[in-house]
Amino acid sequence: MLKILSKSILFKGFNEDVIDNMISKINYKISHFSKGEIIALEGDDIRGIGIILDGTIEVQKGYPSGKVISVNRIGIGGIFGEVIIFSNLKHYPSNIISFTSSKVMFIPKEDILKLCSLSEGFLTRFMTLLSNKILMLNKKLKEVSYGTIREKLADFILDQYKSQENFKITLKQKRNEMAEHFGVTRPSLSRELIKMKEEGLIDFEKNVIIIKDLEKIEEVLY
Fold it and tell me: In which element (H, E) is residue 79 found?
């Protein structure tokens, strides 16, 4: 457990002895979940921040129509609940599901405050975590503002081009996972990719998208 915590943003840079000493001063709970098991439903009371010690969890948003969108998947060392734990919101805003069998460490609000008071380094890391999440949420809002699949794809391709610094973009997600991320069906996503290929904007093969006309892709958004 200490090795995993040392790779989490909240404890990264601390040696394992320091981490062991820190968590010995707080009340935390470790819970095990099987694949597909509900960790928390939208509206449930917040249990504290969760640190993934094993497996992967998925944050989902459900709608009255029955449609469910995958908002995010979080793997080992990842964290959830850090933004809402200090907000006026006392309940989870989304469903949290164990995507694989998983193990989660829950730290209550009071003990997060205690760790912040015990260690300036922990406080700094926690503030960094919150800042990163705000930036990610701003990015999500930008994605939601795009009304068409082509706009969503163009934004995604440009973002990956910047991060990978290559006209050949290696996809980490499968086609159906991309569709879920965009909130569209897989056939609709595939049709738009084919159209963009036919128009000379991109080419693609397996898990790689090849940018053929960067300027035209940028024009989709502006």
Answer: strand 79-80
| Cα–Cα distance measured from residue 209 to residue 7, given in angstroms and rounded to the nearest whole number | 31
Does domain 145-221 correspond to CATH entry 2.40.30.10? no
| Joined tokens for residue 126 | 């926690």
- Looking up tokens 């163009």 gives 154
Q: Is 135's pLDDT higher than 90?
A: no
Dihedral sign, Cα of residue 183, residue 188, residue 190, residue 196: negative
- Residue 62 structure tokens: 């459900």
Q: How far apart are the first and last CA of the chain?
A: 47
pLDDT digits (tens, 9 = 90+) for 54-97: 999 999 987 777 777 788 889 999 999 998 888 888 889 899 99
**2.40.170.20, 2.40.128.110, 3.30.300.20, 2.60.120.10: CATH of 2-134:** 2.60.120.10
Question: Looking at the chain, how many residues does it have?
Answer: 222
